[in-house]
Write a structure and sequence with these properties.
Bound molecules: zinc ion
Oligomer: single chain
Distance between the termini: 19 Å
Number of helices: 1
Order of helices and strands: EEEEEH
Strand content: 25-35%
Radius of gyration: 18 Å
Strand order of the largest sheet: 1-2-5
Structural class: mainly beta
Helix content: 10-25%
Number of domains: 1
Number of strands: 5
Shape: elongated
Largest sheet: 3 strands, antiparallel
């Protein structure tokens, strides 16, 4: 699966641009029947993934801090 580059605005100062790699969530269907799951076939969805590539150059927050704040605000 290929990711794509996205830019998010900084959650702290709203002026900086944060470079991210974004992988959209994907559906996968398991068709194999198992004894533990009668009825077989389950659909699972992988979570979307954001990889923060940079911190904020405007307010100086690190990539880790930016990622934590974006998750807290449910942006990613
Ligand atoms: Zn900032």
């Amino acid at each position: 699966m290929a990711g794509r580059y996205e830019q998010l605005s900084c959650p702290f100062c709203d002026k900086g641009r944060i470079s991210c790699l974004y992988f959209p969530s994907q559906w996968s269907v398991k068709t194999k029947r198992t004894k533990t799951l009668p009825g077989g076939g389950s659909v699972s969805k992988s979570a979307e993934v954001w990889l923060i590539q940079s911190g904020c150059r405007v307010c100086g927050k690190s990539a880790e801090e930016v990622e934590k704040e974006l998750r807290k605000q449910s942006i990613i």
